[in-house]
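Encode chain A's predicted structure.
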Amino acid sequence: MISLDQLSLPRQLDIVFRALDEELTGLDSGIVFVQIRNNVIGKFGIRHYPVPMKKVMESSSKGLTETQRSSFRLMALESLKLKKHWTHGEITYDFAVRNNMIVVDSTLESNYNLASLMIRYPRTTYTDIQINPS
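Encoded structure for chain A:
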């Protein structure tokens, strides 16, 4: 069996969107989130709006069509090109159907842990630092 760390991040994201495909068929707005640790997707899902706004309720949309879901997946994969030099974080895709077109806004958030960075640097104390009064 292949482990997740053997798969590229775009391939993992493709698997995520295929897993969420059925749920996306019933939604016309929400947020898809993907949490990444060591370039491996751990937690993912959809935050959807349980009480739609009146304007959305009046819309005739009954969820994303197959074409819209395919476009959404391609836009999400394309947004990975903006991820540079970080391995931990979260990516969110805020989506909505407007005039029968899907609109997607992605947010890429990198996360760092200072404790893990401190292991790499030598520890100096204030007494080790020579202050030269001038």
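Residues 69 and 109 are 23 Å apart (CA to CA).
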